[in-house]
Amino acid sequence: MTSTPRTGGRILVDNLLAQGCDRIFCVPGESYLAVLDALHDSPEIDLVVARQEGGVGYMAEADGALTKRPGIAFVTRGPGATNASIGVHVAMQDSTPMILFIGDVARGDRDREAFQEVDLVAMFRPLAKWATRIDDAARIPEYVARAYAVAMAGRPGPVVIALPEDMLCDEVVAVDRPRVERPAQAADPGAMIALFDLLKDAAAPLAIVGGADWDGCAAHHFAEFATRHGIPVAAAFRRQDAIANDCTVYAGNLGYGPNPKLLERVKAADLLLVVGPRLGEATTDGYTLITPDHPGQILIHVHPDPAELGSVYRTDLAICADTHEFAELAAHWDSEVIDFADGAEANAEWQAWATPQPTDDMLDLGPCVAAMRAAMPADTIICNGAGNFSGWWHRYWRYAGPVCQLAPTAGAMGYGLPAGVAAALRHPNRRVAVIAGDGDFLMNGQELATAIVSGCRLLVLVVDNGSYGTIRMHQERRYPSRISGTDLANPDFAALGRAFGAWAATVSETAAFPDVLAEALAQPGVALIHLKTDVERIAPAVTVSALRAAPR
């Protein structure tokens, strides 16, 4: 507490420091100059200046995923806010703690359609857990502490706060708030007894994990619990790092392009233990793999937010608890021996599915992934946006556990490079690989400039098939040979990378990849490999020719 008046900008920065904030991602704007001025005297906070607000939002979201505390972003009103909104949408769908601060018009100009004015609270209310505006600088500590609490509590998610530019210049006395922590929420012992009673009666149980507040503690203990009982463990969509993939009961991932044998296991399961996921559309194949009423299956759903339990799916046993608290209790629960053979069998099926088989493609991405696995550490952080290109890494990469995968469950393109910047800054001693398609990369390729100026060490792979591949695949399924709107005319991505200051090379044949990869990994900064592939191989197990030849 201080009796000395401070500007709103200074109070805001002081209270971010009190919450442990050490990094802010931004594109500067005149609407929050008072905050930028306060940051000039706050070397404890690393200010990362990006080149577009979409990159800012993605970077903050990825930082929140890595730290489990809110990633912090600052943008200006109007165009800045609308550009950054994609990061808020990803944070909401991915259950990631994040706070987006937006400089706003002065209080006296509101509701006049002032320059770049948008009703920010109304705009972001459907996208965020909480959207608000601070009109009184003395209440900034209250709002910041509440924002951290809301972003981390229950199902984590984004908070958006509008900051009128004149409020940030007010000089007032304010009482700072202490650091906020996520409250621990243990599983009810009675619910655990019910869970093990249901497990004893099951013949073919299966677990689906990842999401919400999942962390390394949850991964460790849940793997211990599942291995002890032989329960197959499937990862929810783009949650493949939920447990280490060398776990002997790991069964692979759900979502797009999963192992057909895993899908059969999910359908045949008489008990589903879902710990962390919301059972969204991608994980459940449009709510068909597991239907909301799931006849013939018992559903045990563990989630930290009571609002998620029973909201879509009929739940036989709902357990509201932090996933790590639940997993630790389950791992050490004193119960009679319950042993299933399914876990080892499911793992063997996944091992076969996740082993690349050679094709006659000139550049075969399967062996490329295998070469990366051989050359790079197990804890490499793989960052990708949306597109069929990611399917090779989803299928063939082995994730070492939380957090080794940054990939938006929202299916947002352009995510990989900004997420890679956040990961490289947060973990400078770990390998970070960005995997991007050609259409995906150019949605935020400008953030190569941010990566270079920030001193990031990044491997960037651009998979170039001259197409919006995912849409082309759906197009060929529904309207074969009638290509419309999916072809791309691309630059020389290696030349583009060099123009930004990166080391870069082009690969068009499988045999050339290992040597080029070795040279890229020897670089001290950003290395970009342009992978020129054929659109005929539209997905790991799908060709355009096969789609066109399929019966109608």
Instruction: Give the strand line-up of the largest sheet.
Output: 3-2-4-5-7-6
> Roughly what percent helix?
25-40%
How far is it from the N-terminal to the C-terminal residue, by CA? 72 Å
Shape: globular
Q: Enumerate the spans where pLDDT stays under 50 for 5 or more consecutive residues.
A: none
Let me know the average pLDDT: 96
Please tally the β strands and state the result.
22
| Biggest sheet features | 6 strands, parallel
Number of helices: 20
Radius of gyration: 24 Å
Coarse structural class: alpha/beta
Strand content: 15-25%
Topology:
Layout: E1 6-7, H1 8-18, E2 23-26, H2 33-40, E3 46-49, H3 53-67, E4 71-75, H4 79-93, E5 98-104, H5 120-124, E6 130-133, H6 140-152, E7 158-164, E8 171-172, H7 189-201, E9 205-209, H8 216-229, E10 233-235, E11 250-253, H9 260-268, E12 271-275, E13 298-303, E14 317-320, H10 323-331, H11 342-353, H12 365-375, E15 381-384, H13 390-396, E16 405-406, H14 416-426, E17 432-437, H15 438-441, H16 448-453, E18 458-464, H17 469-478, H18 493-500, E19 503-507, H19 513-521, E20 526-532, E21 537-539, E22 542-543, H20 544-549
Parallel strand pairs: 2-3, 2-4, 4-5, 5-7, 6-7, 9-10, 9-12, 10-11, 12-13, 13-14, 15-16, 15-17, 17-18, 18-20, 19-20
Antiparallel strand pairs: 1-8, 21-22
Helix pairs in contact: 1-2, 1-6, 3-4, 3-14, 8-10, 12-19
